[in-house]
Write a structure and sequence with these properties.
- InterPro entries: Thioredoxin-like_sf.
- It comes from Bowmanella dokdonensis.
- Keywords: Signal.
- There is one protein chain.
- By secondary structure, the protein is an alpha+beta fold.
- Helix content is 45%, strand content 17%.
- The protein has seven helices and five strands, in the order αβαααβαβαββα.
- A five-stranded mixed β-sheet has the order 1-3-2-4-5.
- Helix 2 packs across helix 3 and helix 3 packs across helix 5.
- The chain is globular, with a radius of gyration of 20 Å.
């Protein structure tokens, strides 16, 4: 009986420590804060591979022209599978379309979706990635986690709503 109780306590302690570990804000290797797009692709192989594999079509590249002069804030997690898919696609679309956006800010958040500058609070971040389109400093709209149609089409539709 004592042996079973001891085994049960040991298993319980192991499970409790595993649950506590998943509550970490960040893990070794997670990016936090402002991230340079080239550095992201250099340091995170999953992002680089998704960038390499994604081949946008002509319609998507044409749609990106509607982002001319707009700004983008991208809040994402290097630990997030949706971010691993959507952020490289966005970077490839921007690169291949050669659209002249006003600025791009990549902001990596921890596993509690927080980061040092406070943009996560300012823009009420709940899910990653969140891609926010801005015009003249004002939010026009956002894509959360994944686009409805395609990333380029959804961004172009948001851009069409800009003043």
């Amino acid at each position: 009986m004592k042996r079973k109780l001891g085994l049960l306590l040991a298993i319980s302690a192991l499970l409790l420590s595993a649950c506590m570990a998943t509550g970490q804000k960040s893990a070794p290797g997670d990016a936090i804060g402002s991230v340079d797009p080239d550095k992201l692709l250099q340091d995170y192989g999953v992002f680089a591979e998704a960038y390499r594999q994604y081949q946008p079509d002509g319609d998507d590249l044409d749609a990106m022209a509607r982002l001319e002069g707009k700004g983008l804030i991208v809040m994402f997690g290097t630990w997030c599978h949706d971010s691993e898919r959507e952020v490289p696609r966005l970077l490839k679309l921007l690169d291949e379309s050669q659209v002249k956006i006003a600025w791009l800010q990549l902001v990596a958040v921890d596993r509690h979706k927080q980061e040092p500058s406070g943009l996560n609070r300012q823009y009420q971040l709940h899910y990653t990635p969140t891609i926010i389109l801005l015009s003249e400093g004002e939010e026009v709209g956002r894509i959360v986690e994944k686009p409805q149609k395609s990333l380029a089409a959804d961004l172009a539709a948001l851009a069409d709503r800009a003043p």
